[in-house]
Write a structure and sequence with these properties.
heterodimer; A: about 140 residues; alpha+beta; OB fold (Dihydrolipoamide Acetyltransferase, E2P); 2 domains; 5-stranded mixed beta barrel; 7 strands; B: about 650 residues; 20 helices; about 10% strand
Chain lengths: ~140, ~650
């Protein structure tokens, strides 16, 4: 017969082991993408972070330059408030990526340019467009 | 006019809910049967009014009444009829009304089904159900009213339309299933609170709660799996689970609910763990409400989240109220719930179940920790941290593997104490099978978690196979039945046990599928017509880019021929790039969407995404992924559902 105490100890033991495991994993993540700090562009420029970080902001107007030789490579500027940061991204650009769009990038800042490998556009579950009155529609729009 | 009626119906329902609660409280004080009857009718009335309000909103949606803000924002003239209907749960206020609608269905069933059998509990059951309804009525009446008029000083001739991502058949089923699961936990919760309040926990109560739980848990499981399926088919990042806050929000009550399904069996068979089960029911229900809060409050950014809103504090208040009230009652009833019996041995089935419970709870905590980590970190250290999928995988893979192992061990343990002989008899073959698998995998140079996962899968499957084999064999010798009849009768005689085993088989298949993730490969490239790229021994050649205009979108279709290393053609993949609202003069409104194409076999999926098109140079940007074993996840899901249905199937009358 196992006493209640022994059981209690066994279960607490399991709980403690797992708690330690979760703590250990939080301190020693096995991938640099596990826990990423979210910074403002201003902070990045002032504090000179060289580790992997995540930034948010708007794509500066008319800043997108596509590479002629590599279809997937592009340069643009990320704007947050008054701070502007040049960004280089290689990869497939999301559907909604264009001037003025709110985006999130993840990557490293080296030698004055931010090398991003994750680029996400913020998308809303609903269209945040404005409703329009009848005059602003084309006739053929309403036919369908 | 009709929207006004909708609003009024919601007002009335709110008033009636308050009346119903008062009547039940009065009845509990006075014992006057007339109050009970009126209370019951009022409770039914609240549900009927909620149905009515929902039907009004559906009617308005279908008739495109753009005077209502909700309808103008989520549908348009050209939205197909079916999606006008599903827009009911596409947005914040509509989906809250839908929550209420489903809760009302459950309430009516619970009230009518149990009014005789659970006479003593019903006043409390109804009070709890109506209180939850009241909460949602407050939300749709005061905070986000689905019938609110459009704020525009002109006549709105067309609405904004439903997000094309949500215009998908799976998306029409996934939310209702998830809601049926989420919302359904209210009923067992109500019965538990009632049982504690009335100090009455008999076998009948137990059976009622268990049956509800199984059904609700099945709905939640299907909802979660459909969500993964939808993400995989539609979102185009090649995965089915991203550890997104909202996914986690549905996974946490599933984990505690699964723990509960197991531990409640011990209460049924051994009358133990009563306090623990109560705690689990309370936590599961709280997590359901908390999950809804995570989705709605906007404190987490996620693909699922609705626009930020003022719902947060109200929800948090309600979560707090549930916890305080439920644990308050529980602490008052501790003496009643204490069990005389003790677990006798570590090698008993009770102990196996208990450890399974601990692991489920621990996993739930790990998920909660990761989900709330950004919030906690910002509050404590002032830095915003985003938690990625690798973090969740790192923590949960080992815990998941322990669970998989217990799936095999638990059912073979014997109640009270497993003797050494029965241990050897039951475990020798499965352990040998597992070890043999491990050896073979080691030789073909597979290591780490993959090796452990596949070996455990073989181990568990062997244990389950042996269970069926022994059962069938003994029926063949004792009853002289042929193997098929024996198998069928075995299932029928003990549905919950063998149904459970079938669920476990499904789980093992799913784990095999999850493990396939370790072998994923992908490549992104741009192709002109006639050009080719290679990945994992396959060649992808772009034949052609076609254009097509369809009723609500414009599509570019790339014909990608896939051939293997011997040059043999395997399949023609046709991923599409679509522009919805292509006729809109406002470029902001034109919404691009990638419709992907998948070639799926049990071995692997070839997954193709047409990301974007460069019209000047005629280049198609494609992303190709090879995802091994994904079909095992869906196949496992089918078996899982099948097993649950077997376990749930009501016994024939008179054979209880």
């Amino acid at each position: 017969m196992v006493t209640k105490n022994k059981f209690f100890i066994a279960i607490s033991g399991v709980a403690v082991i797992v708690a330690l495991w979760i703590w250990w994993a939080s301190v020693n993540p096995d991938s640099e993408q596990s826990l990423v700090t979210f910074l403002s562009v201003q902070q990045l420029l002032v504090e000179e972070h060289t580790d992997r970080v995540r930034l948010g902001g708007l794509v500066a107007e008319e800043s997108i330059e596509l590479d002629d030789t590599n279809y997937l490579s592009c340069n643009f500027e990320l704007q947050e408030g008054t701070a502007v940061l040049p960004i280089h991204f290689v990869g497939v650009r999301p559907d909604l990526f264009k001037d003025g769009v709110e985006i999130v990038v993840e990557g490293k800042y080296t030698n004055g340019i931010f090398e991003a490998d994750i680029l996400q556009t913020k998308c809303a579950s609903r269209y945040e467009g404005d409703l329009r009155d009848a005059d602003s529609y084309n006739l053929d729009e309403l036919d369908t | 006019m009709i929207p006004v009626i909708g609003g009024l119906v919601l007002n009335l329902a709110l008033g009636l809910a308050i009346v119903a609660i008062c009547l039940h409280i009065l009845y509990l004080r006075t014992g006057d049967g007339r109050l009970f009857l009126s209370g019951q009718r009022a409770a039914l009335g609240v549900s009927l009014l909620s149905f009515f309000a929902t039907f009004i909103l559906v009617q308005l949606l279908i008739n495109s009444n753009f005077d209502v803000d909700y309808i103008a924002h989520y549908t348009s003239q050209e939205t197909p009829l079916i999606y006008k209907f599903t827009a009911l749960w596409a947005g914040q206020s509509g989906s809250l009304l839908f929550w209420l609608f489903i809760l009302s269905i459950y309430s009516v069933i619970a009230i009518l089904q149990n009014q005789r059998s659970h006479l003593k509990l019903m006043p409390w059951v109804m009070t709890v159900l109506v209180t939850v309804q009241l909460f949602f009525l407050v939300l749709v009446n005061f905070i986000t009213n689905p019938f609110a008029p459009t704020e525009a000083d002109f006549v709105v001739v067309n609405g904004l339309g439903l997000n094309p991502l949500l215009q998908n058949a799976t998306m029409a089923i996934h939310p209702p299933m998830l809601y049926l699961g989420y919302v359904g936990f209210t009923v067992p919760f109500a019965f538990s609170i009632a049982a504690m309040a009335q100090k009455e926990m008999n076998a009948l109560w137990m059976r009622t709660v268990r049956q509800w739980l199984l059904f609700v848990w099945l709905m939640l499981s299907i909802g979660i799996m459909l969500g993964g399926w939808w993400a995989y088919q539609e979102l185009g990042w090649g995965g089915y689970w991203a550890w997104d806050p909202v996914e986690n929000a549905s996974f946490m009550p599933w984990l505690t609910g699964t723990a509960l399904l197991h531990s409640i069996m011990i209460q049924e068979k051994k009358n133990m763990l009563k306090v623990w089960n109560m705690v689990l029911i309370i936590i599961t229900f709280t997590l359901c409400i908390f999950g809804t809060f995570l989705t709605r409050s906007g404190i987490m950014s996620s693909v699922h989240s609705f626009a930020a809103s003022s719902l947060g504090p109200v929800f948090l208040g309600f979560v707090f109220f549930i916890m305080v009230a439920s644990f308050g009652i529980l602490s008052q009833r501790m003496n009643l719930l204490r069990s005389e019996k003790r677990i006798e041995s570590f090698s008993s089935r009770e102990s196996g179940f208990l450890f399974n419970n601990v692991v489920f709870i621990v996993m739930c905590f790990a998920v909660l920790w990761g989900t709330l980590f950004p919030v906690i970190s910002e509050a404590v250290r002032g830095t915003k941290i985003t938690v990625g999928a690798p973090f969740f995988n790192q923590i949960n893979i080992p815990i998941g593997l322990v669970l998989l192992c217990l799936t095999g061990v638990g059912p073979l343990l014997v109640w009270r104490k497993t003797s050494t002989q029965s241990f050897i008899r039951n475990f020798t073959a499965p352990i040998l099978a597992g070890l043999a698998t491990a050896l073979v995998l080691y030789i073909i140079n597979i290591r780490g978690y993959v090796l452990i996962s596949f070996s455990l899968a073989v181990f568990v499957i062997t244990t389950i196979f042996l269970e069926f084999f022994r059962g069938v064999r003994s029926r063949i010798t004792v009853h002289r039945e042929n193997p098929l009849t024996a198998f069928w009768r075995l299932l029928r005689k003990n549905r919950s046990r063998y149904g459970g085993y079938i669920v476990h088989v499904g789980i093992v298949f799913m784990f095999v599928g999850f493990t396939g993730h370790a072998f994923d490969s992908e490549k992104e490239f741009g192709l002109k017509t006639g050009e080719s790229e290679h990945l994992s021994g396959y060649t992808f050649t772009l034949y052609n880019i076609r254009e097509e205009e369809r009723p609500n979108h414009y599509a570019w279709i790339s014909d990608v021929q896939v051939s293997d290393q011997f040059g043999k053609n395997i399949v023609l993949l046709q991923p599409e790039k679509r522009i919805y609202f292509h006729r809109s003069p406002d470029p902001e409104r034109r919404q691009p969407h990638s419709e992907l194409d998948i070639y799926a076999t049990m071995k692997q999926d070839i997954y193709s995404i047409f990301n974007s098109i460069d019209l000047e140079n005629n280049v198609a940007y494609l992303k190709i992924m090879i995802n091994p074993l994904v079909n095992w996840v869906w196949f496992g899901g089918f078996i899982f559902v099948l097993g649950t249905i077997v376990a749930m199937w009501p016994p024939r009358k008179g054979k209880l």
